[in-house]
Amino acid sequence: MIEALRKRRSATARELAAATDVSKRHVAKTLARLLDDGLVRCHESVGTHGADVFHAEEGPTSGVVDLGAEEIANSLVWGSNT
User: Fold this and answer.
1) Which domain holds residue 28?
2) Based on CB atoms within 10 Å of each CB, which residue in 2, 32, 60, 70 is the most buried?
3) Could you give the CA distance from residue 54 to residue 65 in angstroms, rounded to a whole number?
4) How crowded is residue 34: how many other Cβ atoms within 10 Å of its Cβ?
């Protein structure tokens, strides 16, 4: 996600979702964590139709974001065969 954002000068969550082929919800959750870690900054409501616009800060070019099951699945996973 951070690499996709760094390829642009700025992007909305929708633009990043399209560029990375993941859901907008996943992008929003990842961006929230990147904001908390100081790796991106957000200009609220300045994009088309009031969208937030994100910019990458200088920092590591790769990393790991720890997402739980509730953040990547539509419903809880109860077993390995569900």
Assistant:
1) 2-72
2) 2
3) 18
4) 22
Does 61 map to a domain? yes
Q: How many domains does one find in the chain?
A: 1
Structure tokens at 80: 């390995």
The verdict on residue 18 lying in a domain is yes
The per-residue pLDDT for 2 is 83
Question: 42 with 28: CB under 8 angstroms?
Answer: no
Give 17-72 pLDDT, tens digit per residue. Answer: 999 999 999 999 999 999 998 889 999 888 878 889 999 887 655 666 666 666 66
Contact 41, 57 (CB under 8 A): yes
Looking at residue 61, what is its pLDDT?
56
